[in-house]
Design brief:
The chain is an alpha+beta fold and 512 residues long. It is 40% helix and 17% strand. It has 19 helices and 15 strands. Strands 14-13-12-15 form a 4-stranded mixed β-sheet, with no helix packed on it. Strands 2-4-5 form a 3-stranded antiparallel β-sheet, with no helix packed on it. The chain has a 3-stranded antiparallel β-sheet with strand order 3-7-6. A hairpin with a 6-residue loop joins strand 6 and strand 7. Helix 11 packs across helix 13 and helix 11 crosses helix 15. It is globular.
Length: 512
């Protein structure tokens, strides 16, 4: 079943960077369907020893998107029968040519008439998936539901995912956690399968490949991509290379591992009930304590991470900033609440902790007695939100408070605003600021229009209310320019937009 397919699925580099295709032209839909079939097979048979596999047509359609139809799936499977793949590798034993993509058929259960897709892979695909000396994870959520409109985006995503996998994310604040992939126009064309006779025409590459990347990569969480076009000086300024700057994210909370040392250290698992909107799985805190070691020395444990999240959540709900990070970080304040609504509390909590790992802020004075008082009130609020009466077991032990070191509980409660802060759900206006440093890297104001503004104007929205969006940036003379338009985004569409232009934004968005 589709629900058993992991959010991320591994692929050997030979299936990411060294693939050539012959036969019928494949669409983004075809690539997405094939990835689903491979992921489903591997999730249910990691040894890849089974001769054939089966997946429900209903679940396949759900993954492929609301516009997917049974007829389109069947046509795609028919096309795959005639497609041949070739895999290159440094290892001669892992090189294959003229490999059939897949063979598929329909399976119809006699009892309820539900249809399934039966399919088989040729032995080379089994062999590559069975043993993966080098591999990278494919994010199924990033390519499913029609998120990648272009087949060229699909091919480039796989190539960059393999490149990003070479950088092992480090919680050390001194590490950049980034890599740059530099490709000539000809190399880029060959990687994505863009047809060319002679030198690749960069104008067409830019129009049909590069301009789709920001929107098509919006759902990618494992790394963020910024594109830099390098030209020769002088007449004509021909393009020398396209540089893809990849900022690698921390491992997803789905694949991060927990260390039972942190459990034994505090005497058991931690976590607690909360309103369904803000509920986080208890094992996430163990995984966080094992992953974000730069903010988890021996004095901090999984309980401390749970406390930190509770504190950040209270700060956001009360709109009472505890540090300047409330105004500038992507997972603090109103932005944190927007992330919860769009991606769920698990992903939002993980994003908050990753930001703290890159540069400590809220956790900097985490062990102070004043902070302990705030945490105590945060847990009290959590229990009230969930409709539970406060229990001794639920609330972590709090160090004795010294009134001289911070607010009393009553004073903290009095700090809450008379009216709730605006969030995405009830705002009339959203303001975002472009980063001044990112602006200078554009090279010209026309690039701002192409990279940031045009995608916003041309995007289709499916929400049910109008919101005014204001985008602000500094001109070269340091004067401020503002671009405004009316949009009707859903929460998911808005988060997708923010992810796609994240590397160009300075600070958190403002909901007014």
């Amino acid at each position: 079943m589709l629900t058993k397919v992991a959010p991320e699925s591994p692929r050997p580099v030979e299936m990411l960077m060294g693939v050539s295709v012959s036969g019928p032209s494949l669409s983004s839909f075809d690539y997405t369907l094939h990835d689903l079939l491979v992921s489903h097979a591997y999730e249910n048979d990691k040894s890849m020893e089974e001769r054939s596999y089966s997946i429900s047509m209903r679940h396949a359609l759900r993954y492929l998107g609301t516009d997917a139809r049974r007829e389109a799936v069947q046509a795609s499977l028919d096309k795959m029968r005639d497609v041949r793949l070739s895999f290159s590798s440094k290892d001669a034993a892992r090189r294959y040519a003229d490999v059939p993509m897949t063979v598929a058929w329909r399976e119809i259960a006699e009892d309820d008439g539900n249809e399934a897709i039966g399919y088989q892979f040729p032995e080379p695909i089994h062999a590559l998936m069975r043993r993966m000396p080098r591999y990278a994870y494919i994010e199924l959520a990033a390519i499913g539901d029609g998120r990648m409109s272009s087949k060229y985006s699909q091919a480039l995503y796989r190539y960059l995912a393999a490149a990003a996998s070479e950088v092992k994310w480090s919680p050390d604040e001194d590490e950049t956690n980034s890599v740059t992939v530099s490709l000539s126009p000809d190399e880029l064309a060959d990687i994505v399968g863009f047809p060319r006779k002679g030198p690749a025409p960069f104008g067409k590459l830019q129009e049909r490949v590069l301009r789709h990347i920001e929107n098509d990569f919006a759902g990618v969480r494992r790394f963020r991509t910024q594109i830099e076009i390098v030209r020769k000086p002088g007449r004509g300024r021909p393009v020398v290379s396209v540089n893809f700057h990849l900022q690698v994210a921390a491992p997803s909370h789905y694949v991060a591992r927990g260390n039972e040392f942190h459990v034994r250290q505090v005497g058991g698992r931690v976590g607690g009930t909360d309103d369904a909107r803000f509920r986080v799985r208890s094992n996430l805190w163990i995984r966080a304590a094992n992953t974000f070691t730069s903010i988890a020395p021996t004095t901090l444990s999984n309980r401390d991470f749970f406390d930190a999240w509770s504190l950040a959540l209270k700060e956001a709900l009360d709109a009472v900033p505890l540090t300047d990070g409330y105004h500038t970080r992507r997972f603090r304040g109103p932005s944190l609440l927007a992330a919860v609504d769009a991606d769920g509390a698990d992903a939002a909590a993980w994003g908050f902790l990753e930001e703290e790992a890159r540069s400590r802020d809220l956790i900097n004075n985490f062990t102070s007695r004043a902070q302990h008082k705030r945490i105590q009130v945060a847990h009290k609020d959590r229990l009230e939100r969930s409709g539970h009466r406060q229990s001794i077991k639920e609330v972590p032990s709090i160090a004795p408070a010294d009134p001289a070191e911070g607010f009393e509980v009553a004073e903290l409660a009095a700090m809450a605003p008379l009216s709730a802060p605006k969030t995405f759900a009830d705002c009339a206006t959203i303001e975002i600021d472009l980063d001044a440093d990112a602006f200078s890297s554009f090279g010209a104001e026309a690039e701002i229009e192409r990279i940031v503004l045009e995608p916003l104007v041309s995007r289709s929205w499916s929400g049910d209310r109008n919101v005014e969006l204001k985008v602000k940036w500094h001109r070269p003379d340091r004067s401020i320019d503002t671009f405004a338009l009316e949009i009707k985004p859903t929460a998911g569409e808005w988060r997708s937009v923010m992810r796609s232009i994240d590397s160009f934004i300075g600070g958190a968005e403002r909901y007014l």
